[in-house]
Amino acid sequence: MELNSLHDLYLIELKDLYDAENRIIEALPAMAEAAKSPQLKTALEEHLQETRNQVARLERIFNSLNESPKGKKCKGVIGIIDEGEDMIDETEDSPPAVCDAALIASAQRVEHYEIAAYGTVRTWAQRLGRTEDAQLLKETLQEEGQADKKLTALAESYINEEAESAR
Questions:
Q1: Which domain holds residue 159?
Q2: pTM, full prediction
Q3: Cα angle: 53, vertex 14, 54; to 5 degrees
Q4: How many structural domains does the chain have?
Q5: Is 167 helix (H, G, I), strand (E, B) or coil?
Q6: What's the pLDDT tens digit per position in 90-114?
Q7: What percent of the chain is helix, strand and coil (3-state, nearest 5)?
Q8: First CA to last CA across the chain, in angstroms?
């Protein structure tokens, strides 16, 4: 696909996000299973359902554009997920809080990537006059921000402290 306009950039970034979200849907169950803290497990499981809803929003946008969501591989999220899988393997025999702290760090990397990407496409949707798209993207952006805040709260409430005292 040639990128000759903001609309072209918008479309390619949406496809990137669509691939990213589907890869995250595949990765979240293993992360939830690896979580030791019941609160972290619940947060990851809840975010899995949110992510499914985010894919549905993207599909609505693609339908309104008469475009297929397929055709782009999100190399950024592939790398972040790969690192997260490595971290799960490396902390498998670690104290529970160390494992959970590593999971939170991995999950937050994904969230920060998504926050940046959704912020960009929401702004582009507004610029392109795609008001409904912008609203759908804003909903997802807010959910990603809330997920990040929830992970931070878990880390700061007890997980990081327990991980530190595990040494």
A1: 6-165
A2: 0.94
A3: 5
A4: 1
A5: coil
A6: 998 999 999 999 999 999 999 999 9
A7: 85, 0, 15
A8: 51
